[in-house]
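EI: anyone free to look at a 222-residue chain?
SC: sure, send it
EI:
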Amino acid sequence: MKVRKDIIGFTLLELLIAFAIMSIIVLIVYMGLDAVSKSTDLARLTAEKARVQRYLMDYFMKTLGSVYIDPSFRESGYRFVGTNESGPYGPADTLRFCTSLPMPGPYALPGVRRVVSLWLEENQGGKEDISRFAVDIYGLSNNAPYYLVINESPLVLDEESGISADLNNLYVNEVRVPLASLDIWYFDPVKMDWVEEWDSQSLQLMPWAVHILARFFNEYGE
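SC: here you go
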């Protein structure tokens, strides 16, 4: 008579414990990979924000440092105008001035100065409308509802009006950066204080300094 030996195997409880341990290990690995991915995205976002901040700071210092004005404050083409506006995320000030710098790139013509206009605008087209330095700044969450428009156009003076009316044939350079708010202050040398608006033609004066405070959106576009 043959004696049957016991078959060595796993009980149902042991299998459940093994699956539970494997699930915990997989969860730990997934959480680790997710943390690394988020850290990488955050580092890239921080680097992109720093790059755009450097660009804006350098741009404002160069253009505002070379503002061109008419000593008589009569030519409207050289008018320095800053208005105090508000938007859904805070101040949305606008600024328009003329700089002695030429147009960028191959569109730079001798003796033709550059007019710079800054304003905030609602983003209605998504990522396609965000150009140049603003591309991919907010990664997968690039849904910023507002952006700063930097508009540059050549100034061609007319003998009668002081500024060319045929602007359709002129090259316009435009850069857009996702921005929540733009707050601009001007130092009045008469009042010896900061003011929120400026008009060089009406005041017959230029501000001693310009203070610009720009606030970016976070990684969620808020």
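EI: Helices lie at 12-64, 200-203.
SC: 👍
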